[in-house]
Design goal:
This protein is an alpha/beta fold and 231 residues long. The chain has a single domain, classed as 3-Layer(aba) Sandwich (Rossmann fold). The chain has 7 helices and 10 strands. The chain has a 6-stranded mixed sheet. The protein has a 4-stranded antiparallel sheet with strand order 2-1-4-5, covered by helices on one side. The two termini are 12 Å apart.
Length: 231
């Protein structure tokens, strides 16, 4: 397992709870879950499907609200802020990578990476330069003008990772980022994801079913009975 040089606390969950009602049944997905993630630290989240990994990531990324507890991003209690404030934090501080790339099919690789920067009010020139630099780092300098449909699965996911890093976030959240790729391509893309995360010094929480990939991160946590437990 790699050794991390950790810094400030980027993500702090305190006694987070989340339940869903299904018919007459209440499903307690998260119960009094607490967790800290620091700058420069990459943590694997390994747990079976249906145990609440995606719910946890959505709450940490301010896409969902907890029923109880607090979500602090860089020391700011963000879980119960107004939607506009939560959106601003997501845009500036959080990058997301999903199992499926969710690229916009009508835009080129370059444009997909420029878009979050444009939303963050960066100039077109700066956004274009950042997009081209990131895509080149991921070996896609020759694919800048290709639409997602013209890219391979591994290339699509590289563009998605570049897009997640476009606004230089403090926190990277990834939900099975290589789960839709073949074994060889998954290993290559994961290598590039780790390299990019470590060189950026950000905090990363990466959900994966792959024990070998998990072992390469700084810590491994799992969900048991709705609570995060370190392995």
């Amino acid at each position: 397992m790699a050794e991390a040089t950790t810094g400030k606390t980027v993500l702090q969950l305190r006694d987070v709870a989340r339940s869903y009602v299904s018919g007459d049944e209440t499903l307690h997905v998260l119960r009094d879950t607490s967790f800290s993630l620091h700058a420069g630290e990459i943590v694997a989240l390994v747990a079976p499907s249906g145990t609440g990994k995606s719910t946890l990531l959505h709450i940490a990324g301010l896409l969902d609200r907890p029923d109880a507890g607090s979500v602090e991003i860089i020391g700011r209690d963000s879980g119960r802020l107004a939607d506009n404030d939560r959106t601003a934090i997501r845009c500036s501080e959080i990058g997301f990578v999903y199992q499926f790339h969710h690229l916009l099919g009508e835009f080129t690789a370059r444009e997909n990476v420029m878009l979050p920067q444009m939303i963050a009010k960066k100039s077109q020139h700066i956004a274009r330069e950042r997009a081209e630099n990131l895509l080149s780092l991921f070996g896609l300098g020759h694919r800048l003008d290709h639409l997602p449909g013209k890219l391979s699965g591994g290339e699509q996911q590289r563009v998605a990772i570049a897009r997640a890093l476009a606004n230089e976030p403090s926190l990277l959240l990834a939900d099975e980022p290589t789960g839709n790729l073949d074994v060889k391509t998954a290993a290559t893309v994961f290598d590039e994801l780790l390299r990019a995360a470590r060189s950026s010094g950000l905090a990363a929480l990466i959900a994966t079913h792959n024990d070998e990939l998990a072992a390469r991160m700084d810590r491994v946590v799992t969900l048991r009975d709705g609570m995060l437990v370190e392995l």
